[in-house]
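Re: beginner question about structure tokens

> Can someone show what the tokenized structure looks like for a real chain? I only ever see the sequence side.

Sure, here's an example I had lying around. Input first:
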Amino acid sequence: MRSTQLGRFRGGISRRTFIAATGGTGLTGLAGCLGDDTDGADETGTAESDDTDGETLSGEVTVTGSSTVYPISKEMADRFMAAHPDVTVRVEPTGSGGGFEGHFCPGESDINGASRPITSAETDHCGENGVTPLELQIAGDALTMAISTENTWADCLSFAELARIWSENGAETWADLDPDWPAEPFERYGPDTTSGTYDWFTETVVSSAGPHRSDYVSTEDDETIVQGLEESPYAIGYFGYSYYARNADRIDALRVKRGPDDSCAEPSLGAARDGTYPMARPLFIYPSEEALAREPVAEFVRFYLENATADWIADDIGYVPSSDDQSETNLERLEAIVDD
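And the corresponding structure tokens:
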């Protein structure tokens, strides 16, 4: 059965009996969490997922949140529904903050994807509605600052220079950064304020110079950013590495360095994995503990975590898969909650 609107939580207890576990710790960074090994899933990234107790699994699962996490969640949903045709998994890219605020915390979605950790205010909002988020780090990303292929002057920018471009009352033209560069105004493209990518970039890079400026083309559609970059040599924009990688023939990526004396690093999965790219960041899903009481949700999340180490996450989507250790920790945390 296909859902046509966001569904609310339903009652019911999982029939699967999970192995009891001790639970995991908070996940705060990429180091040790993302790796080269992909032994946790087969080459196609599809783990075994038999029907429970000989019964056909059925029902609905609703996933909202980050447009960055969306391609992983959508592919996971498609693979899960292929194994369980009586389950409908609906995935909607609402932005990390938009998903928490408008769907997940009110109890209207089961899982929210996020390209930054949930905030204390969002946790409080969820708690007011009886929703308990479970944080699960499922991949890594290299946030990418992109420019036109006709931009022949800029190659590497520091955090301070990026902050000048993107902060209120900051630089207005390329020449403001370097007098040898064109005295042409920046044409800025970026994610909407409901986006976790916006939040992460603002907190990590822009905040040193002030608030993120509002006079830019904001969108949840990454294609709009790519088109804007194609249309002007003076344009600049940012989004997740996956979308850059799929459009590397249309746009260029800037190298980035944290401080003026640091080495410039280009965005790549390898650099995100080993920590040499300064705008590497973790990606998350947040199922609610209440939704996990429903078997289709618990089984989908378990499937998601078992396959989070798969090669296709890097090869087909363009993100850093979880390490085997991270996947095991996530599964232990899940099983500790779902265990009967």
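Each token stands for a local structural state, so reading them left to right follows the chain. The radius of gyration is 21 Å.
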